[in-house]
Amino acid sequence: MSATLPPKKPAPKAPVEVVKELSMVKQKEMIAGNYEKLATAREQGRKVASTFVPGNLNELLMCFDLVNNLPEINAIQNGMRKKSGQYIMEAEKRGHSEDVCTYVKADLGMMAKGNVGPDGRPIPDPDILLLSYTGCFTFMKWFELLREQYGCETAMLHVPYQGDGRIDANMRDYVVKQLKEEVIPKLERVSGVKFDIDRLREYLRESAKAEDDLVWVLESAKHKPSPIDAYFGGCYYIGPIFTAFRGTPDATEYYRLLRGEIEERIRLGQGPVTPEGEMKTEKYRLVVEGPPNWTSFRDFWKMFYDEGAVVVASTYTKVGGTYDLGFRHDPDRPLESLAEYCLGCYTNRNLPSRIDMIEKYVNEYEADGLLINSIKSCNSFSAGQLLVLREIEKRTGRPGAFIETDLVDPRYFSPANVKNRMESYFQMIEQKRQGARSAAAA
User: Radius of gyration of the chain from Cα atoms?
Assistant: First the structure.
């Protein structure tokens, strides 16, 4: 009796090669360049500032030749590289609660393990901590911990919360007064560079050009099919303008390249470029509220891709500035412009104005509904999200859905749960569509 050979296992499927457009290559070079500046700051005799994305005063920091380090971006980069989990565990081992923002724990854990950055080289200690407070109380506590650790100079820019949903002259003047009397003198003292307002004006001029193109890119999602994904793809699009590059010719060039690529996709009637390839069929158009999960970013995006779901607008892409509502940095009003920028960030807006913004997106982008990704450790976004969901359903008549993940903690991304909820949501959308067709036929 001859032995039966076991069936051959199918060859493993080769991963899809990610399409690298010129803008993506440009951005990668820019990010690598900033980490290079950080890694070599001490030998180059340069001072380092640490600051956050919302209310990020990058143009002002450049006036003092400071290298900009953003702890949130380090946490995101480490999350996408599957490194953040070990850092979070290290921070919890040192007494930080499971409920603390995982960006904070990823940063503190990275510091505890030698403060080696995402590029594998140590990040230098900051010479100054610059906190623009824009609605996230956690940032204040985070900087208290960093100040204790580093013992360096700290500049606090207190930005009034938009409790009434508007910015008035007193709020703006209050921020400008702090810039003049608190922030700029400290930056001069730490850097040894005298403030030059004409230099700031030049940077703001560059910012406004890039902001025009960013808004055009985000609003291109009104086309059908949408040439972009405004959540997953949008995370890449906002990178330069929300971080260490706003105000630079590099950022202006990046957005010029990006706009050109998207204009071509519109001309050809193409959908978004994704890690799985081009989105060929747009079945669902969604608005998404809340940050993405970074540790499983590609897997998360693939769930949308597999269902033909394109995100046409998102609130996360407004966390570092609501440019699509009309704001531009203004070189003719430099300090007032910086103040208005900080005051207008998404996290500094009250709940009613956030709901109004989401309703506008659902209607103007002709979305099928609102999907909320509630982040376990982010109170700035998660507070009130169920109320937002119900209100949007009531105002627009379109269904909403609620999923839960986390920022950079891999323990709180459950693919099966997320996938099940999303599949149920798409069935709900189909039922709504069928009901609308039946009503129209009747």
Answer: 23
Question: What are the E-state strand segments in 125-210?
Answer: 128-133, 153-158
Question: Which runs of consecutive H residues, i.e. helices, occur in 232-350?
Answer: 232-237, 239-242, 249-268, 297-307, 334-344
Strands 277-278 and 273-274: antiparallel
Q: Check: CB of residue 91 under 8 Å from CB of residue 108.
A: yes
pLDDT in tens, 149-172: 899 999 999 999 999 999 999 999
Bond before 225 cis per omega within 30 degrees: yes
**What is d(CA 237, CA 215) in angstroms, rounded to the nearest whole number?**
10
In a domain, 3, yes or no: no
In the structure encoding, which two tokens stand for residue 334, read together? 């430099």
Residue 117, token pair as written in the block: 């950055």
Work out whether the CA dihedral 378, 381, 383, 386 comes out positive or negative. negative
Sequence-separated (6 or more) residues with CB below 8 Å from residue 8 = none
d(CA 321, CA 373): 20
Answer whether 323's CB lies under 8 Å from 215's CB: yes
- Match 């919302």 to its residue by tokens: 54
Whole-model pTM over 0.70: yes
Indicate the DSSP class of residue 412: G
CA dist 296 and 309 (Å) reads 18
Do 91 and 112 meet the contact criterion of CB atoms below 8 Å apart? yes
What is the span of the domain harbouring residue 215?
A: 38-441
Mean pLDDT (10-residue bins), the chain, 442 residues? 46 54 92 95 96 93 97 95 96 91 94 93 95 83 90 93 93 97 97 98 98 98 98 96 96 97 97 94 97 96 97 96 96 98 93 96 98 91 91 97 96 95 96 85 80
Is residue 315 in a domain? yes
Q: Answer whether residue 335 is part of any domain.
A: yes
226 contacts 312 by C-beta, under 8 angstroms: yes
Cβ-contact 217, 251 below 8 angstroms: no
Of 35, 30, 112, 132, which is closest to residue 74 (Cα–Cα)? 35
Percent of the chain residues topping a pLDDT of 70: 95
**Other C-beta atoms within 10 Å of 8: how many?**
6
- Domain-embedded: residue 9: no
> Do 48 and 38 form a contact (C-beta atoms < 8 A)?
yes
CA–CA separation, 160 and 134 (whole Å): 8
Number of H helices, E strands in the chain: 18, 10
Q: How many structural domains are present in the chain?
A: 1
Amino acid in the structure at residue 327: F
> Residue 3: which residues within 8 A CB-CB, separation 6 or more?
none
Q: Which amino acid is at 285?
A: R
